[in-house]
Amino acid sequence: MSDRVNVPDDRDRTQRTITDGFFEREVYLSRQETATFLRDLADQIEADTNVTVAGSEWEIPFEYREPIEVEIEFTKQRERELEIELEFSEASDGGGSGLSVR
Predict the structure, then answer these.
(1) How far is CA 56 from CA 7, 36, 74, in A?
(2) Is the pLDDT of residue 99 over 50?
């Protein structure tokens, strides 16, 4: 298992670790590349609450909390489209819900 999930064939040439601000990247992958990416991501999710997603010149390390939001969207306007989105929320500082028993 890799310690980061690589996005194949990213063309950005500025090496950086992204920890704040806004970053967005859209890539187009073959079925095999997509399957490999999803397996690597699944391995990281199963192993820990830390994931690192990376291109050839960037990486995003991220510690998340459960639950993970999974959104499934289907539409048929001009063409049929199925979108599957995973949303990871930042891990809390351990504050919990604010409830306690004394």
Answers:
(1) 8, 16, 31
(2) no
